[in-house]
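Late entry, evening session. Most of the bench is empty. Finally got around to the prediction I had been postponing all week. Sequence below, unchanged from the version circulated by S.P.
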Amino acid sequence: MLWTLVIPLKPLARAKSRLSDTAHGSIRPRLALAFAQDTVAAALECPAVADVAVVTDDAVAGRELAALGARIVPDTPGAGLNAALAHGTAAVRAVRPACPVAAMNADLPALRPAELGRVLNAAAAFPRAFLADMAQVGTTLLAATPGHALRPAFGGDSRARHRTSGAIELHPAAVPSVRQDVDTGADLRAALSLGVGPRTAAVAARLLISER
């Protein structure tokens, strides 16, 4: 089964505000873009992924991610994360109605194609399935197989909401790179310890991250 990934990305100027303790204002947009670039590049290398659609209104991000091979879907609803994902999924399935779709975070800079493949292969067995983040509170990936609506409920305690909605929680072995999203300085340090992609590594090298 070959998947289409739908990845939402808010305008870079407003992204990653919770990294303010680690990166000042001029660096945070560059980090957000680097995270997305490394996420998209790794996703496109995964044999289980047919293509990637990025939902964004940021012109710089759209240009850079399109150069990597992503399809850019304008965030015309402009109504937040879940509305963007629903819109992106509709745009994808307007072209390929029978395609399996997975919503995935744009801030997985340590993403490994093989680990993503294990998650998607596990998800193929269920109408809807999701992967919890490393903190076991949020969600980094939500999948829907052909004929099933995605019904995203990302944000905050999304693990509980996705379970309540009937999506099956996945427990594939050894997929830390698909779980490790980056919202805080501690998350960034954890991602760096896993080994991030080249763009994130280059931007992060400019940061002085203190041990806590």
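Two things to note before I forget:
The chain has a mean pLDDT of 94.
The first strand starts at residue 3 and ends at 8.
Will write this up properly tomorrow.
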